[in-house]
Backbone:
């Protein structure tokens, strides 16, 4: 299954989804040379924003990739009210939407710790280098600890330049 | 006649700069090829994203059955 992060970002942007890029792609944007296999974003889990996510991927055969039966993405009002995370597989790859980031907090806290980025076609917010280090330290998995070494080195290089 | 110093330079790979800070040195000592980070920092964020896409495409081409959930 391909993973096209730029195309997914363009979709989210076109459908006016509120989000901040977190996780591995955030590290890549800051300069970490590690490959990641999904696009992680933090977003407000309001019904309106979740409907925007749904419309952004609805023609990409989205399903909840971590459910045993690979349930197709379909929101009921009850589900909209109770969801805290979305782990989706789409024709453009994996898209994980989280309502909060460990070590940082909910979307509003994450947004305050974000910086704007721009590609040739899309503008989006990315978790700052400092906040990404805090988040990865809070999670503390082995692969996060490796990424932290890169992130600290990058932070040091930027501060010295 | 080949210059021995040049041969040594060609063979030894990345060398941590003498003025590197403690975090950069720690990453070097850990075994990371920090030339990759230097390259990345010379690029724009979009170029980094494109480079990542190429690496990802290559990995998935070489191993289409890779369990990308487990690789997270």
Residues:
């Amino acid at each position: 299954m391909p993973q096209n992060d730029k195309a997914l970002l363009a979709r989210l942007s076109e459908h006016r989804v509120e989000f901040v890029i977190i996780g591995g792609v955030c590290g890549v944007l800051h300069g970490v040379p590690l490959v990641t296999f999904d696009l992680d974003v933090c977003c407000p889990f309001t019904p309106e924003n979740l409907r925007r996510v749904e419309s952004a991927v609805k023609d990409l055969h989205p399903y909840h990739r971590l459910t045993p039966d690979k349930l197709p993405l379909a929101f009921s009002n009850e589900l909209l009210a109770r969801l805290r995370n979305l782990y989706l597989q789409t024709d453009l790859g994996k898209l994980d939407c989280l309502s909060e980031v460990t070590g940082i907090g909910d979307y509003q806290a994450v947004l305050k710790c974000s910086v704007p980025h721009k590609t040739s076609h899309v503008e989006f917010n990315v978790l700052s280098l400092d906040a990404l280090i805090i988040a990865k330290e809070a999670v503390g998995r082995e692969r996060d600890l490796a990424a932290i070494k890169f992130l600290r080195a990058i932070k040091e290089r930027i501060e010295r330049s | 006649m080949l210059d021995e110093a040049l041969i040594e330079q060609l063979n030894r790979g990345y060398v941590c700069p003498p003025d590197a800070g403690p975090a950069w040195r720690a990453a070097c000592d850990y075994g990371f090829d920090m030339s990759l980070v230097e390259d990345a920092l010379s690029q724009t964020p979009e170029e980094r994203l494109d480079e990542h896409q190429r690496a990802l495409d290559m990995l998935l081409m070489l191993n289409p059955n890779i369990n990308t959930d487990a690789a997270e």
Chain A has a mean pLDDT of 95. Residues 142-160 of chain A form the longest helix (19 residues). Chain A has seven helices and nine strands. The helical segments of chain A are 5-14, 23-30, 47-57, 77-82, 107-112, 129-139, 142-160.
